[in-house]
Amino acid sequence: MGNICRSPTAEGVFRYFVETGGLARRIQIDSAGTHGYHAGEAPDPRSCAAAGRRGYDLSRLRARQVKTADFERFDLVLAMDEQNLRHLLRICPEGLQHKVKLFLAYARNFEEREVPDPYYGSGGGFEHVLDLIEDASAGLLSDLRKQLTGT
């Protein structure tokens, strides 16, 4: 929602996967929130700390609100939960709704459909978010690699 926990974590993790997977020149990654109340702010310090313990750097990311142009600019617009998915579909220009999906649709080892918001929970929630995001990132990268390279 605010682009300070889940979505910047997903951006940082997926960017790492893409860079180490050799596809950084072919895949553009960004994150945004459905609401602008944290625009310009750095990710939540707890997200940064949890990500840092696993080798992901979120320090340069800043929150922004999703724009209508994002639906044209990107091939995929991925939501962390059903509420944000519904919001994205409401603001999505007609004919582009096929680009909007749940991020965990790409997860291979978890059956959860939504990445829970760890903001109001305990510190362990940030670790679980990372587990889910790493899994979905691996699945997403695998799918994109097949599309881009045929392998």
UniProtKB/TrEMBL annotation:
This is Protein-tyrosine phosphatase. It comes from the Bacteria. It comes from Chitinivorax tropicus. It holds the Pfam family LMWPc. Its EC number is 3.1.3.48. The active site is at residues 6, 117. Keywords: Hydrolase. The keyword Hydrolase applies. Residues 2-143 form the Phosphotyrosine protein phosphatase I domain.
